[in-house]
Amino acid sequence: TARCIPSPATMSKRPAASPAGQVPKKPATASPKVLVVSSTYLDKQGIETLVGEYVESGNNHGKKVFKRAPTSASPQAISLYYWDGRDGPESSGWWFGQSVGGEQVWARCEKADVVPPAQGWRIPWDRDV
């Protein structure tokens, strides 16, 4: 089972209450969100390709896009992105692919969650969950 988990280093905390009359300061820049994709089952043809850290890298169809840099185990860059229903229900959901909307894809989750779901992935994309 593959899981998408927000990295603890980038999870935001509720700001502390400020003293009466003071306006809380905003951080100069917000750190991009990082997701860690992990698995308890390694299949050299599927999951192993997807495991790694994904950094927030823009938006697509109203949701965040995450990218993983190439690694020694998997030399290609991988995008984790959401595709809405404009091309039909069989195309909507979260995808792991070579590029946003590209032909080369490895996994799909049909959910429309705001962030990539931790469970429910089809690996390969056209297989049962």
Give the secondary structure arrangement, pairings included.
Layout: E1 2-6, E2 34-39, H1 47-50, E3 52-60, E4 63-68, E5 78-83, E6 93-97, E7 105-109
Describe it.
The protein is mostly beta strands and 129 residues long. It is 3% helix and 33% strand. The protein is built from one helix and seven strands. The chain has one helix spanning 47-50; strands spanning 2-6, 34-39, 52-60, 63-68, 78-83, 93-97, 105-109. The chain has a seven-stranded antiparallel sheet. The radius of gyration is 17 Å and the shape is globular. Residues 6-18 have low confidence and may be disordered.
Radius of gyration over alpha carbons? 17 Å
Number of strands: 7
Mean pLDDT, nearest integer? 78
Inertia-based shape: globular
Helix segment count?
A: 1
Notable characteristics:
129 residues, mainly beta
